[in-house]
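[[Per-residue structure]]
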Amino acid sequence: MAAPARDARSRQRLTPGGSAAEEDTPPAEPTLALPVGIPEHAVLGGREVFVHYPVGIGGSKLQAGWFEKRLGVVGTARNANTVAKLVAMTA
């Protein structure tokens, strides 16, 4: 199977929210089963979920709420371009 396209507009990052005290303790490593037949790909990476939306996020079933419900967290989603700009602002 070919690797998904590297279009930054189609990648999202979901990071659990919480207080600083909660961030000091990493959550247990959950497993995640995606629905069969969807084009999206998701990877758990520590406290983050990286999602590739090859046909866009608009009609996807894998919105932030889908992950929050299954992982038992409250989080926020950011486009990869936004994350890069936020990192650049802190440099």
User: Anything to note?
Assistant: Strands lie at 11-16, 41-45, 48-52, 75-79. The chain has one domain: 8-90. Confidence is low (pLDDT under 50) at residues 1-6, 18-23. Residues 8-90 form one domain.
